[in-house]
Write a structure and sequence with these properties.
It comes from Psychrobacter nivimaris. The protein has helices at about 5-20, 65-70, and strands at about 5, 25, 40, 50-55, 60-65, 75-85, 95-105. The protein has about 110 residues and is an alpha/beta fold. A hairpin with a 2-residue loop joins strand 4 (about 50-55) and strand 5. The relative contact order is 0.28.
Amino acid sequence: MQITATESCKVLIKLLKSKHGELMFHQSGGCCDGSSPMCYPLGEFKVGGQDVLVGELAGCPFYMGKAQYNLWQHTDLTIDVVNGRGASFSLEIPEGKRFIVRSEICAI
């Protein structure tokens, strides 16, 4: 699995870092927009044994819930940004933006 950020995503991450400091991402696959990547101040979301560090997104650790990782582990992810509000506690929501995943199945 590879995780990359679009230019729009990198710009938004830079803005959020200027406001909130270092960041982290988590994608759970659960309810309340859980299948969308959620952005938090680094360390604010408590990861545990059911979370997998799958890489970095523009210098920020990116975790995924183990159950979702097991389904997506052969998928390359591109994190992008669209206008609109998600139903989450993610830091980009007050900016009128939301992170989304664009995916492509990897050859094994």
